[in-house]
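re: ur question from earlier - yeah i can do the single chain one, its not a big deal. heres the input i used so u can compare w yours
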Amino acid sequence: MASFIPRKGPGGKRVWQAHVRRRGYPAQVKTFDAKADAEAWARKLEGEMDRGVFASRAEGDNTTLAEALARYRKEVSSQKRGAAQEASVITALTNSPLGRQTLGSLQGKVLALYRDALLSEGYSPITIKRRFAILSHLYKIAAQEWGMGELVNPVPRVSIPRVQNARDRRLVDNERDIIVSAAQVYGGEIGPLITWAIETAMRRGEIAAMRWEHLDRKARVLLLPETKNGAPRRVPLSVPALAVLDALPRRMGHAAHDVDGRVWGMRPDSISQAFERVCKAAGIEGLTFHDLRHEATSRLFEKGLNPMQVAAITGHKTLQMLKRYTHLRAEDLVGMLG
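and the output i got, formated as tokens:
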């Protein structure tokens, strides 16, 4: 039989400590604010013991989220390509009020309060989604690989604000010429990078990671051995794209990144920062470097390529994702109607 003992909790408030002891099973103890919750917990455990499906909750109840996150960072996150970006998310979760909670005690209502607090502080839905995605994966790993199969993942029980990050910004009028001219004044690699992005529809990270040994000039193809979706991709190169590469030695000289095989000497974040400065100098608002991928994808369709051909170039795996990056102008479609 289970026993329930009243105790003095934080602030002098009475709490209830539930004890479940059954021959052949380790003793189970857990504290609740309400006696009814303690009784429900005890009945559940006793029912599992009766059916022979009981699994000890001791490890999950004794492991804080901060401790689990430290292990997750070392064993799981460190193996991902985006480990550096994920590290900041893990740090934020560790330092949050959730970090002091044990895995077994973290409930959906606690996550809901955390979500609401983030929203009130001005955090975006995508930030909340990223944090909750890591939490959910941590619970999956703990249950499947760390011997905590009894854990219940609380994340699916919490609604996450819908992320509204769709963009339809394209270059209008003579914006391309204005930006390229401003980039030439700014100097460095950003000018050629802008042209390259528009001609290839490559992601910023893919561009920054380009290496000379992956270029096949004869076939006019660039190999991308690692991409965002995990599959390698071969990008066909237009004549203007090849002209960008052909001009690099004359423009850049024998830079350090030429020696180690890298095509460009800028990191992804540096590319975005330089592009922002160029746009500001050119007086162009509401345009990001990533919008150039939207622009390039839309131009491929306007050249007459079909969805399969465009996806082979851009690396989109689904038609829905490709559609998000395609913004065709009605004015450009008139001539195709006859």
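The chain has three domains: 3-54, 61-157, 175-337. not sure if urs matches, ping me
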